[in-house]
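Weekly structure sync, notes
Attendees: PL (lead), two postdocs, one rotation student
Agenda item 3: pending single-chain targets
PL asked that the sequence for the first pending target be pasted directly into the notes so everyone works from the same version. It is reproduced below exactly as submitted, 188 residues in total.
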Amino acid sequence: MSNPKANTNNEQVNRKMSMQEYKMIREEDEGCLRKYRKHCMQEMHEYLSFGPRFNSIIELEDGEAFLDTIEKEHHLTLVIVHIYDDGIQGCEALNKCLTCLADEYSTVKFCRIRVSATGAEEQFPKDVLPTLLVYKAGEMLANFICITKNLNEEFFATDVENFLNEYGLLPAKELAPCPEGDKELGVE
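Predicted structure, written out during the meeting:
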């Protein structure tokens, strides 16, 4: 009882792969690996880029909004609050600088509140303005009273950014998402 087709099946199993077949399988494997790497990089980027995006400076209307912003924000979100008043040297310039930084650091919540709206005007006389307060998870990390004394007379967003980075307060700038055509990136 022998099967005449049994020998041909064994021959197909035992035959060697041609170079063309090998190259085709290898290219297919490399393509799958490339897709897998891209998927992993996107997942990692999404994981590290958690949370809300702000992209602008938020005006706080009163002391209650100030407390809510500090206490109710996500525990990993950095909150930077500028206490200012009109007509105080440096306040307007600092507002402009923080507006620029809000665009660059979209995961940082930049806020400002007029000193008269805080409900604590006696704690912030005009000679301590502009004041910058930095919070994370409801805890104060830094308090810069009359921050303009630490900057040049004429300062810009990069000066404020460098100042905050000296204290390790700003997160690393965000990376751009992976380009679609990343075949030639050389990532192995």
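Discussion points:
- The chain has a mean pLDDT of 82.
- The chain is about 40% helix and 15% strand.
Action: rotation student to compare against the earlier draft before next sync.
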